[in-house]
Amino acid sequence: MEDRISELKEMARLCRIDIVKMTHAANAGHPGGSLSAIDSMVALYGTIMRFDTSNPDWDDRDRFVMSKGHASPAMYALLHQMGVLEESDLMSFRTLGSVCQGHVDMNWTEGVDFSAGSLGMGLSFGLGCALSARMDASERRIWVMLGDGETQEGQVWEAAMAANYHNVNNLRVIVDRNRIQNDDFMEVQMEIGDIGAKFESFGWSSREVDGHDMSELVEALQWTENIDSGPIAIIANTTKGKGVSFMEDNPEFHGKAPNNEELGIALEELS
């Protein structure tokens, strides 16, 4: 297992390099939330996610719903490291006609299961996918990544309530709890408190983890395999901009690309 954890850490490092390079090339994008989310995503795809890189449209694959769709660089970097996307695809990020659009879009990119835009819709979509899987008698599980900022939206909690009511035991949520949204820290905008307790109050099982500790993430993902009733939430405590010193805990890099000098610093730190 130690060797596998080391492999996952290395994949996450390579993904971070991809993230800063593609946002720099586009001079646009959202590096901060991509860097905070990438460890959870690598842990998921590298362990229990049922996904075939040679057949990204396999019908019985697990689904990954990137509700915080502006963190698309994380998704594209992961798909690149898994061999689904080419580096040239990443370098065309946010250009007209590119398979790597600004927000994840299932109509443009192989391996993307949700077309994002306005925040707060992903859990509702994921719930629909989970119910559909039940109707199809499929074993596919639905994983939804939420940003903590979007959990301020009522639609998230309507979906959470409905998921418990329908006892969807194939629905999983990972909350990227980096405590920064768009313009500022959440405690300034609108702090939401104990997210895990909120999910539990809606009848979910929940677990809180260090979202940058690969061993802890893998253990939490394996824990979900032993829950046989109802939906599950993992609250991943993270640092926005993780891995790049001047981006860490810096709201400025929610939606700002690194310039030439900053790219050099970031690549040096990540290497």
Structural notes for this entry:
With 271 residues, this protein is α/β, with parallel strands linked by helices. Helices cover 42% and strands 12% of the residues. The chain has helices at residues 2-26, 31-45, 72-81, 87-91, 122-135, 154-165, 186-189, 195-201, 214-224, 260-270; strands at 63-66, 142-147, 171-177, 180-181, 184-185, 205-210, 232-237. The protein has a 5-stranded parallel beta sheet, sandwiched between helices. The protein has a two-stranded antiparallel ribbon with strand order 4-5. Strand 4 (180-181) and strand 5 (184-185) form a beta hairpin. It is globular, with a radius of gyration of 17 Å.
**Helix and strand succession?**
HHEHHHEHEEEHHEHEH
Q: Mean pLDDT, rounded to whole units?
A: 97
State the strand order across the main sheet.
Answer: 1-2-3-7-6
Unreliably modeled segments: none
User: With helices defined by DSSP (H or I, 4 residues minimum), what is the helix count?
Assistant: 10
| Broad CATH class | Alpha Beta
CATH architecture name: 3-Layer(aba) Sandwich
Tally the beta strands: 7
- Radius of gyration over alpha carbons? 17 Å
Termini separation = 24 Å
Number of separate domains:
1
Proportion of residues in β-strands: 5-15%
- Note the overall shape: globular
CATH names the topology as: Rossmann fold
Helical coverage, percent range: 40-55%
Structural class: alpha/beta
| CATH superfamily (homologous) name | Thiamin diphosphate (ThDP)-binding fold, Pyr/PP domains
Biggest sheet, in brief? Answer: 5 strands, parallel
